[in-house]
Specification:
Layout (H helix, E strand, L loop, with lengths): L13 E5 L2 E7 L15 E2 L3 E3 L2 E8 L9 E2 H7 L2 E5 L3 E5 L5 E5 L8 E6 L5 E3 L3 E4 L5 E3 L3 E3 L6 E7 L12 E6 L2 H10 L2 H10 L16 H11 L5 H5 L3 H20 L7 E9 L2 E8 L2 H21 L9 H5 L8 E7 L3 E8 L2 E8 L5 E9 L3
Parallel strand pairs: 6-11
Antiparallel strand pairs: 1-2, 2-19, 3-5, 4-5, 5-17, 7-10, 8-9, 10-15, 11-14, 12-13, 12-16, 13-15, 17-18, 18-22, 19-20, 20-21, 21-22
Helix pairs in contact: 2-3, 6-7
Length: 377
């Protein structure tokens, strides 16, 4: 399903009502952005390199208090967050905060689930996070925050299990972030067909004819899919098959080097990373706090490793100047979506670069997550 945020004319506001809450979406280069983050807040360390990947830790002496927020994995594991198919048992909240089963919609939908936050804290959702179960595994389509006590939320998702549409287990925390090529199709292109294609392709990055082959070739993915993931399940393909074994060993080595290189920090904390493949800076994930970064680090690292294995085995190391470009704020076409008092989502595109920021508006305004990527298509 092809979906995109369609901007109105610059300065025009479009109100969207969702389950009693009011959100606003607008687009245009003339919309003023919040004051940029001072460059002194972030500092790049030397890259950790292994084979064709270079990871630049981003450190800061400042760290926001993000303890009031809950991640999707933690919410699903504790039972405070429930995810259901539409048309099955949705959830309605009674006045004493208990949840009662009800029929939420007329039928299940590939690209929409129902989520309820019945906990006491806002839940952070990041595009590319995987939830497994239901009629097929899905990934979150867009960064957002779900307030505690909110009405059942129609949750936009993309399918990452093309070959199944049948009753399965209840949705659970997969503790998985899809790799950048897939995540880009969800977060930026918002295309279901492109998501499916990138799951089976490995990497969508352009590849020259003279480039050395990747360790994880398309034929390897096809073979593993046929043998270990006949429903084209992302989780089974990249975690439970021989492909997953290759990823595990790659992750272990990168993590060992990363831990050694960052063990002596004094007065600074890791809040994010900039990632390069074969000398080309491609991706960055930066968080408001080191605690929030640590919550996501293991599954982010695994996603970067999958991408590295699916790209040519070029051993060049990106320069710090190129990596530093991924810390600046882009100037370009801007799209914004906001739920008053809860969150603001903002995307800025400049040439082949795309920047997505998720701002929490309560308990105090802060940018919880900032993604900047070099688009592959």
């Amino acid at each position: 399903m092809e979906r995109s945020l369609l901007g109105a004319l610059a300065g025009t506001l479009l109100g969207i009502s969702t389950l009693g809450s009011m959100a606003f979406v607008w687009a245009g280069s003339g919309t003023p952005a919040p004051d940029p983050k001072p460059e002194g807040d972030w500092r790049l360390l030397d890259p950790i390199t292994y084979e064709n990947i270079s990871i630049f830790p981003v450190v800061s002496s400042l760290s926001q208090d993000t303890s009031s927020f809950v991640t999707l994995d933690d919410g699903l594991s504790s039972g405070d967050v429930l995810v259901r198919e539409q048309g099955g048992e949705g959830m309605a909240r009674s006045r004493d905060s208990r949840s009662d089963a009800r029929q939420y919609n007329t039928g299940a939908s590939v690209n929409q689930l129902v989520l309820i936050n019945r906990g006491k804290h806002p839940v952070v959702l990041l595009a590319g996070e995987l939830v497994s179960g239901g009629k097929q595994d899905r990934i979150i389509a867009k960064d957002r925050i779900v307030a505690p006590g909110a009405d059942p939320l129609p949750l936009d998702v993309f399918c990452v299990e093309h070959g199944r549409w049948s009753a399965g287990t209840q949705f659970s925390a997969a503790k998985t972030m899809v790799h950048p090529s897939v995540r880009e199709q969800a977060a930026v292109k918002q295309s279901q067909n492109e998501v499916w294609a990138s799951v089976s392709a490995g990497s969508t990055a352009p590849r020259s004819a003279s480039a050395p082959p990747p360790r994880l070739a398309a034929s390897d993915i096809a073979s593993a899919m046929e043998t270990n993931a006949p429903t084209q399940s992302y989780a089974k393909l990249y975690k439970e098959s021989p492909v997953g074994v290759s990823v595990d060993s790659f992750v272990d080595e990168v993590q060992r080097r990363f831990a050694r290189a960052t063990s002596g920090l004094k007065g600074e904390h890791i809040v994010g990373v900039v990632v390069a493949y074969g000398g080309e800076v491609a991706w960055s994930d930066i968080f408001a706090s080191s605690d929030l970064f640590q919550h996501y680090w293991s599954k982010l690292l695994r996603s970067y490793a999958v991408e590295a294995l699916a790209r040519p085995t070029l051993r060049e190391v990106a320069s710090r100047d190129d990596a530093r470009e991924f810390l600046r704020h882009l100037n370009g076409r801007e799209q914004v979506e906001s739920e008053p008092g809860v969150y603001r989502w903002r995307e800025v595109t400049e040439g082949k670069l795309a920047q997505i920021e998720l701002d929490a508006l309560q308990p105090k305004p802060m940018t919880l997550h900032r993604l900047l990527l070099h688009r592959t298509s």
